[in-house]
Amino acid sequence: MTHPDRLRSHEVLASKRSGPPAQLDTAVEHVRTFAALVHDRRGQDVLGWIE
After folding, report:
1. 30: part of which helix (H) or strand (E)?
2. Claim: this prediction has a pTM higher than 0.90
3. Contact 31, 4 (CB under 8 A)
4. CB within 8 A of 47, min separation 6: which ones?
């Protein structure tokens, strides 16, 4: 759940070595997009994200 820019060096390396299973790629992208909506306070875009 940590923003990729805030990962520690050992977390980045572990992530690159193992990487998420291919079936989780879509879920990861949805979570990151939602986190950006919340962080940027773009509540007006949430309905579009849900669709």
Report:
1. helix 25-39
2. no
3. no
4. none
